[in-house]
Design brief:
Elements lengths: L1 H33 L2 H19 L2 H13 L14
Helix pairs in contact: 2-3
Length: 84
């Protein structure tokens, strides 16, 4: 019974995370209509780093940065704007 409850909680959190991701992504696509992609990405990254810095220990923060650097992110299939 406890495992089932735990699995349901994980599924709920996964659904919430996906919903949040989709909402923020939709906002990002709209921002990219008015601002250059690198400006939007840089702003999101700055916000994310401050959030991590606020909530993680020094060790946890460094581990998160290491994870980000090592991540092999796939690009989105959207038109790119280039900074001049």
């Amino acid at each position: 019974m406890l495992k089932i409850q735990k699995d349901l909680l994980i599924m709920k959190k996964d659904k919430e995370l996906d919903e949040l991701y989709q909402q923020i992504f939709a906002d990002v696509v709209e921002y990219m209509e008015d601002y250059e992609t690198q400006m939007v990405a840089g702003t999101l990254l700055a916000i994310a780093i401050r959030l991590y810095r606020t909530n993680l220990t020094d060790k946890g923060f460094q581990e998160m940065l290491d994870t980000i650097v090592e991540c092999e992110a796939k690009p989105y299939d959207i038109p790119k704007k280039v900074l001049h």
